[in-house]
Each structure stands twice: as structure tokens, then as C-alpha cells.
Amino acid sequence: MLGIRGVARGMSVLVGAAALTIAEVVVPGPASAVAVPGFDHIVVVMFENIGYDTIIGTASAPYFNQLADTGALFTDSHALTHPSQPNYIALFSGATQGVVDDSCPYDVTGVDNLGTRLAAAGHSFAGYAESMPTPGCRLPA
User: Fold this and answer.
1) Are 18 and 139 in contact (CB under 8 A)?
2) Separation CA 15–CA 118 (nearest Å)
3) Domain boundaries, the chain
4) What is the pLDDT of residues 21-67, one digit of tens each?
């Protein structure tokens, strides 16, 4: 059975990928603003409960350091609350949607979120998660 941490990790990757992809569908700012470059793919890797110094700059994580060297690091990112689940919901939808703990499932369907905005703009997104019980798993079943 999938634990809450696995669900949270899965949600974090999905949310993060969608969050950065939305940059392509945001209305541009004033003409003097620097344009956001277009991307074919955006990948977000999020670690939960792992310190920055445990990964970045260490010999034990060469692939993640290679990604960090060629991408952007969100070094001042902070949670809204504790525990994890409300933060993942907020990252994907802009608010905690009343989620206050790590219990599953919560019904947050029907609320505006990055996925609905990307789909409405003709974009797609995907999430790749650690510890999912089966390929294509959609919790709750």
C-alpha cells in the first residue's frame, strides 16, 4: 500500500512540472519586460525533508548536480504550513483547499489548478513519482 510520503512525492513532482510549464501560458508583462523563453520540456525535481547541502555540491548526487548546474534552483522556497499534503495541494492549485493534514484522500477536484490551466491553453503535463504502487496509478482507486 502506498504511504502518504509516496503520494506526497508523486504530487510534488507533478505539481512542480506543471508549475514551471505554466510560465508559457502566462500573459506577458509590459513591452519593456524580458520575455520568458519558450521550452519544449520543463522538469522539476523536489526533495522532501532533505537538506540542500545533502544534494547540491556533493559527490554522492552527480546527476542531480548536473541538472542543477544547467537549470534554476529555488533556494528560497518555503512551505505554507505543516505537514506536507497541504503544501503540495497549494503548489498545484494556489491554496491549501482546506487540506490540513496528510490524510488521503481529499476531494480537490473542481478547483482551479495548474493542470486545468495548462489543458485549457493546449498544453500537457505529466508527473513522475517515486513509490507509486503500479504504473498509471490514480489514487484513490
Assistant:
1) no
2) 12
3) 4-26+40-120
4) 444 455 555 667 788 888 888 887 888 888 899 999 999 999 999 99
Q: What is the pLDDT of residues 105-139, one digit of tens each?
A: 677 778 998 888 989 999 988 877 777 667 666 66
The position carrying cell 513509490 is: 131
Q: Which residues contact 130 (CB under 8 A, 6 or more apart)?
A: 6, 9, 10, 13
Amino acid at position 71, single letter? G
Give the Cα separation of 8 and 88 in Å (integer). Answer: 7
Give dist(CA 122, CA 23) in Å, integer: 13
What's the pTM? Answer: 0.60
- Residue-wise DSSP of 66-134: HHHHHS---TT---SSSSHHHHHHHHHHSS-TT--SS-S----TTS--HHHHHHHTT-------TT-SS
Half-sphere exposure of 65 (CA within 13 A, CB side): 10
